[in-house]
Amino acid sequence: MCRSFIYHTVLKLPIPICKATQPQELQQERYQQQAAGLLKQLQHLAPQARAALHAVQQPLLEAVDEASRREDILQHDFAPLCDEMRSLRQQRARLLEERQELHASIAALHSQHTGLTQEIKNDQARLDELNGKIVNASPLNQMKAAIQRLNGELQDMQIATGVALQRLQIKS
Q1: 106 and 146 together in one domain
Q2: Of the four, 36, 43, 89, 111, which is 20 to 30 A from 105 by CA?
Q3: Confidence (pLDDT) at 3
Q4: Structural domain count, the chain
C-alpha cells in the first residue's frame, strides 16, 4: 500500500501516489485501477455537478435578462436627456467662443479708450496753459484803456479841427 496521499481539490478524493519501489508493471496496474476508480467516481458525480450548474445557471440568466431589460429602459428614458446634454454642450462651446471674441474686442476698445484718455489729458493740459495766459488779461485791459483814451483824444481833435475849419471859413 502507498504511504503518501494527495487530497484532490476538485473531486475532494484522496489520490494515492506510490513511490517507485515496486516493479513497473505493478505500478502501471495500480495506476489503471486508480484511474478506473476515479472514472467511476466522476461518472457518479457528473449528474450532481450538472444539476448544481443548472441551478446556478437559471438565476444567472434571469439576472442577465433583468439587467438587459433595465438597460433598455434607461436607454429609452435617458436618450432624449443625452441628446439635450449634447446640444447644451455644443451651445456652451459656441458661447465660450463668443465670450473670447468679446473679451478680445473689449481689450481693443480698452486700449483705444486709454489712448483717447491720454490725448484728452494732453489737450486739457494745453488748454489749461492757454487759459492761464488768457486769465492774466491786465496787459489787454491796459491796451484797451489806452485805445479808448486815444479814441477820446481823436474825437477831441476832430472837434477842434472842425471848429478851426469853421473859423477859417468864416474869416475867409
Answers
A1: no
A2: 89
A3: 41
A4: 2
DSSP codes of every residue in 54-103: HHHHHHHHHHHHHHHHHHHHHHHHHHHHHHHHHHHHHHHHHHHHHHHHHH
Nearest by Cα to 17 from 27, 29, 2: 2
C-alpha cell at 114: 486709454
Decide: 169 and 161 in contact? Cβ < 8 Å.
no
19's grid cell: 513511490
Does one domain contain both 112 and 131? yes
User: Looking at the structure, do residues 17 and 98 belong to the same domain, yes or no?
Assistant: yes
Task: Name the DSSP letter for residue 20.
Answer: T
- Domain range for 147 is 138-172
List 5's β-bridge partners, or say none. 16
On whether both 37 and 116 belong to a single domain, the answer is yes
Which contiguous run of DSSP H or E holds residue 40?
helix 24-135
Q: How far apart are CA 98 and CA 104, in angstroms?
A: 10
pLDDT at 22: 55
Please list the rounded mean pLDDT of every run of 10 residues in the chain (172 residues): 46 53 74 86 84 84 90 84 91 94 91 91 87 71 90 89 82 71
